[in-house]
Amino acid sequence: MEFRANHHYPSRRSAVFADNMVATSHPLAAQAGLAMLKRGGNAVDAAIATAITLTLVEPTGNGVGSDAFAIVWDGKELHGLNASGRSPAAWTPERFAAQKEMPFRGWESVTVPGAVSAWVSLSERFGALAFADLFEPAIAYAQNGFIVTPVIAQLWQRAAAELGQYPGFSEAFLPNGTPPKAGERFTNLPLAKTLQLIANTKGEAFYKGTLAQTICDFAKQHGAALTMADMAAHKADWCGTISQKFDDVELHEIPPNGQGIAALMALGILSTTSIRELDADDPLAFHLQIEAMKLALVDAENYVADSDYMNDVTASDLLDESYLASRAALIDLGQAQDFNIGAPKNGGTVYLTTADDSGMMVSFIQSNYAGFGSGVVVPGTGIALQNRGAGFSTDPNNQNRVGPNKRPFQTIIPGFLMGSDGPLMSFGVMGGPMQAQGHVQMVLRTQFWGQDPQMAVDAPRWRFVQGLNVACEDTMPKATLDALQALGHDISLEAPDNAFGFGGAQLICRLDNDGYAAGSDPRKDGAAMGF
């Protein structure tokens, strides 16, 4: 693969080249992963250590109470892991019958956390180091403190006003009643103890032991549904991947309940258009991508659910070649549109990627969903619980309708790109509904338009919002914005430091003659490091 140098996008970062690599959204977490590689661990060990450290240093996007997904190239084949949690057994549709939509915060948005099970499952199957070793950097930072970065401080400040009212939040995350400022040191001794318990018991304490009991006792105090039986029943699933080809490359995503299928659908739609005739920053190339994403996202919103409950419309239906071609035929090259749902069948997140010199590559993502998640923090543990239950629908006709022991629609998705000779790129883009859209943009920029991973990361991004509204970074050239407006897109501008609006991308590309090139996003505190 031959890359072009980055000369015309805002960041002047260069891609990082090395034989062993970690790329994520916080330098301390990236260093934790590198430490495991230098200790003789592999890419999976590095990924787990990085993920564990991120729960401490970036609490605004993830925590021990998060969900997680991963795609692993073990040197011979791909493996997909779904470690998202299910709803409590008491979450019947009747429980939420009086509500037009699911609660977004508080205990009624809390599903079983799955991230810990991801760490355990990955380590048991692929890890080279002892599980407890992977916790050492995070526990040290939790005990001794770490210095809060400007981006994290800003996000922490935004969350404080809204979440201070929720059980346990102020005690855990507002020392002296206020969020830490940039440059201040933050310690989290309760989380250090929690991480040590998880390390010592290989996760058993979290799902069946002391920590599970503490979580469920706190739930009971607040009239919540989560029980010990719900926690003990959780398991991560090795689910494989689903994929979509675009010429000689094949994008792989985790099967539903995640939105990764939307990226595959958009790529399939684009494969039947004239996008190959256009340059990377041609307004018409943006137009085609936006319209393809609109078509994919409107279907994903209405059809994607826990795969066990996708009975009327399946993933295969949504990826059917003839169906995607019929959707592509709806795109007007001269006019933006507000698309309806198709009929495929009649009737605050953190991302990291690692790679090692043996060829192993890992694409991993974990998230609380909205910043600190539900706002609920279990006293004495440092465990902030996710609000993934907000991803359910209360519509009786929706496949994603809330129900007991069911996984909700998920926004977090790891991406992986394969070529005819093996892996090409392990990557992800953080930021809610931006993720599938970011995947498509990264695939086209790196594989079709020859941009190196840092150049692709630095390029101004767009994000479909709803209807005809498209948000663009204000670094996008005025001529491009004017052209999109002329095509009928209702353009709103946002600053590129809106890390969650446009995502924080991390990419590792495999080089033709061994080794890797990585790009990391300056929109967050992104760091790509290697040796």
For the biggest sheet, the summary is: 7 strands, antiparallel
The best one-word shape is globular
Count of strand segments: 21
Structural class comes to: alpha+beta
* Fraction of residues in helix: 25-40%
Radius of gyration: 22 Å
| Beta strand % | 15-25%
Give the neighbour order of strands across the main sheet. 1-20-19-15-14-9-8
Number of helices: 18
Low-pLDDT segments, ≥5 res: none
Overall mean pLDDT = 94
Distance between the termini: 20 Å
Write a structural description:
It is a single chain. With 531 residues, the chain is an alpha+beta fold. 34% of the residues lie in helices and 18% in strands. The chain is built from 18 helices and 21 strands. The strands form five sheets. Strands 1-20-19-15-14-9-8 form a seven-stranded antiparallel β-sheet. A seven-stranded antiparallel β-sheet has the order 7-4-3-11-10-2-21, covered by helices on one side. A three-stranded mixed β-sheet has the order 16-17-18. Strand 16 and strand 17 form a beta hairpin. Helix 11 packs across helix 14. The longest helix is centred in the middle third of the chain and has 21 residues. The protein is globular, with a radius of gyration of 22 Å. The chain starts with 15 loop residues before the first strand and ends with a strand. 58% of the residues are buried. The model has no long low-confidence stretch (mean pLDDT 94).
